[in-house]
Amino acid sequence: MRTPLFENTAVNAACGARILIKPEMLQHTGSFKFRGASNRVALMSTTERAGGIVAWSSGNHALAISAVAARHGIKATILMPSDAPRAKVEGAERLGGTVRLYDRATEVREEIGADIAARTRAVIIPPYDDPQVIAGQGTVGLELAEQAAALGASLDMALLACSGGGLVAGAATALKARSPATQVYSVEPAGFDDTARSLASGRPERNAPGAATLCDALMVPTPGLLTFPINRALLAGGVAVSDDEVKAAMRLVYDTLKLVVEPGGVTPLAAVLAGKVDARGKTVGVVLSGGNVDPGTYAACIGA
Amino acid sequence: MRTPLFENTAVNAACGARILIKPEMLQHTGSFKFRGASNRVALMSTTERAGGIVAWSSGNHALAISAVAARHGIKATILMPSDAPRAKVEGAERLGGTVRLYDRATEVREEIGADIAARTRAVIIPPYDDPQVIAGQGTVGLELAEQAAALGASLDMALLACSGGGLVAGAATALKARSPATQVYSVEPAGFDDTARSLASGRPERNAPGAATLCDALMVPTPGLLTFPINRALLAGGVAVSDDEVKAAMRLVYDTLKLVVEPGGVTPLAAVLAGKVDARGKTVGVVLSGGNVDPGTYAACIGA
C-alpha cells in the first residue's frame, strides 16, 4: 500500500520546521515491514514455497511475514522473543504464523532459525540482512521522494527509525537516487544506539548488555552485516532518543495526528522535537514506521 | 485536506464486506468539521470579518472554527457545553478561540449566541444549519465518490455519523449526484436517534431528555431545520448503535487501522459490525468522522 504523505500545522509549530509525515502504521499489518516481506516472498520459487518460511522478529516482521505467507498459501514459522508485546505475538498467530518463543538473554535466534531451516528446507527471511527485504523497505524512501516532489517540497533531511537498519538502508538508497541533497539520519533508542556509534567510529559497535527501552522494535545488539555498509556510505549520521522523548512524541501524535504510533515507530519525530538534529526552518521527512502496541502500554505513553 | 480512502483486510473480514474507510480524523483539527468551517469563513465579506464569528459546538466545530478564524485573523467566540471533553475545550483555546462554557441542561446555546451576535455584530456560524457549512461537509461525500470510482469500486452504501445532520446531508447530496445507486445511512448513538426516528415518521422527532452516550459529539435533541428536509429526501434510512458497539469498533480501529477515532466518529463502523445495516458482501463507504477524545476516555474504550 502506498501510504500518504502529509503535514500538520500543530506538528510543524511544535518542531519549528516543515514536517512531512509518512504514516507507515497505515501499511498492511501496521508497519513498513509488509513492504520487505512482500518483496522477498514474491521472489520465492515454487520449490522454495513448498518448504515454507522461517523468520525471526521482535514483532513487526513477524506480522508481515505471517500475513504475506498466508496470502501465498505458504507455511511460516516465526521466532519471537518471549518478552514481545502480546499484540504482536497474538497478531502473528491470528494471521496464520506458527510462533515459537525464545529467550532473548539465553538463546540466539539466528541459530534456532538455521536449525529449523536445515531440518525443514524452509527459506530463512531475516528481518533486515537480506537484499530483497532491504529493497522492499526502500519503497518507503522512494514514495517519500516522489510524494515530497509532488507537493513541491525539497527535503532537507529525512529521519527513519533504526534497529538492524533495513528500513533506513533501503530508504537512503532510494532517497540518494531521487533526492541526492536530502540528508538521511537513523534514529535509535538510548542504550541501543549501535548504528549511531558505528557510523561515528566507522566500524560495527555493539550495545552494552542490560539496557532497557520502551522501543521493543528497536533492540538489536549491533548493525546488520548487509545494512551497515550501506548506511555507512549513505547516512549523514545517527541520533538516539530517550523513553521520555518517545512518550512526548507519542502524545503529540495522539493529540494532533490522530494516529496510533508505537514507541519505536515515533523515534524520528521524537528526535526532531528533542532537537537531536538541526531541523529548525527546514523541510524534514519523518517516517512513523509502525503502530503495533499493546493498549496498556499505549495508554501509559499518552498519559491516560 | 483531501483525506485518503483505503481498505484493510482485517476490517473487511470482521465486517464480511468490502469497507472503504475515509479517515476524517486525519483532517485539520481532527475532524470533518474543518471542511464546513473553511467554506463558510472563506465566503465572509471584509465587513463581516471585522465583526468576528460566534459559534456553538460540542467540540469539533469549535476546533474547526477556532483554527479557520485564526488563519484569517478573525476573532471567534465559541459556546461549548460545560461537559465537553477537555481535549476539545483546551484545543479550541489553544487555536485562538475564546471559549464560553454553558450548561447543557439549563441554557440554550442558540439564544446565548444570538445575544452575542446582536451585541458585537459577529456572524453566527452554526454547526450544521447553514447552507455553506453543509456544502463544506459535503466534500467528504464528493471525495468518497471520486476515490471509490478511482479504485474501481461501486459503492452499494455509505454510512455517516449524524448529530444535527450536516455531514450526512452534505455527503448525501454529493453522493446522489456522483453515485446515485449508493444508499446513504445516518448513524446515531442509542438514545439520540432523533434523525432515525424522524426519517421513519417523516417529521422531526425529539429525543427524550436524560439519555447518556459516550458519543459527546452526537447529542443534539432534534434534526436540523435545513438538514432534515435534505436527509428526508436523500437517505435510505437511519440506524443507532450502543456504547458497547461503539467501544468494540474503537478497539477494532485501534488494533487494525492504527487510527485514533472518537466515540461519535466510529459509529458508522460500529453499525456495520453490529449488523445494523445489511452490508454482507457489499461495498460500503464508512466515514470515520473525528478523533478528538481525551486520553483517559480513549484508553477505557480500547480496553487498556
Oligomer: homodimer
Fraction of residues of chain A in helices?
Answer: 40-55%
Quote the beta fraction of chain A: 15-25%
Shape of chain A: globular
Can you name the CATH architecture of the largest domain in chain A?
Answer: 3-Layer(aba) Sandwich
Total helical elements of chain A: 13
Low-confidence stretches of chain A: none
Would you count the extended β strands of chain A for me?
Answer: 9
Widest β-sheet, arrangement of strands of chain A: 1-9-6-7-8
Mean pLDDT reading of chain A: 96
Largest sheet of chain A: 5 strands, parallel
Q: Provide the domain count of chain A.
A: 2
- Taking the alpha carbons of the first and last residues of chain A, their distance comes to 32 Å
User: Do you know the CATH topology of the largest domain in chain A?
Assistant: Rossmann fold
Order of helices and strands of chain A: HEHHEHEHEHEHEHEHHEHHEH
Q: Which CATH C-level class of the largest domain in chain A is it?
A: Alpha Beta
Radius of gyration of chain A: 18 Å
Content-based structural category of chain A: alpha/beta
Q: Which two protein chains have the largest interface (Cβ within 8 Å of the partner's Cβ), and how many residues from each?
A: A-B, 30 and 30 residues
